[in-house]
Amino acid sequence: MARGTMVPTLLVLLLAVCCATTVVHGKEWTVGDNKGWSFGVSGWESGKHIQSGDVLVFKYNLSMHNMVQVGEEDYNSCIVSSPSRTYTSGNDHIQLARGGKVFFICNLPGHCQQGMKIAITA
């Protein structure tokens, strides 16, 4: 191959590889829709086709609530007993990985019991 045609050929090959690469951008879901992460949000996820790669957005008043990713046992009991991750920004974005269920609660006293919890299967 002559030097003059090698550079354009490499550029075309590089462009073809870039075009063939698929970038997956998940859908963004605001938990609780326009109500946000608040009391009674439990069940919000029902009937939604939430997939791996999608992003859950938890919007809430950070002086009144938090959001904690917990295991299933803590979700069911509304008591955080095992190590977990607590979010407190008021605008938390969680990208879902493939497989299994993930569980989220507000662990301030009484909030989970008042329906501030969701379980998502991606």
UniProtKB/TrEMBL annotation:
List cellular component terms (GO): plasma membrane
* Start and end residues of each Phytocyanin domain: 27-122
Keyword Transit peptide among UniProt keywords: no
Asked if the keyword Metal-binding belongs to this entry, the reply reads yes
Cite the InterPro entries for this sequence. Cupredoxin, Phytocyanin-like, Phytocyanin_dom, Plantacyanin
Q: Which GO terms describe its molecular function?
A: electron transfer activity; metal ion binding
What is the residue range of the signal peptide feature? 1-26
**PROSITE patterns per record:** PHYTOCYANIN
The UniProt keyword set, sorted, is: Copper, Disulfide bond, Metal-binding, Signal
Matches recorded under PANTHER family: BLUE COPPER PROTEIN, GENOME ASSEMBLY, CHROMOSOME: II
- The protein in question is named Plantacyanin
Question: What organism is listed for this UniProt entry?
Answer: Triticum aestivum (Wheat)
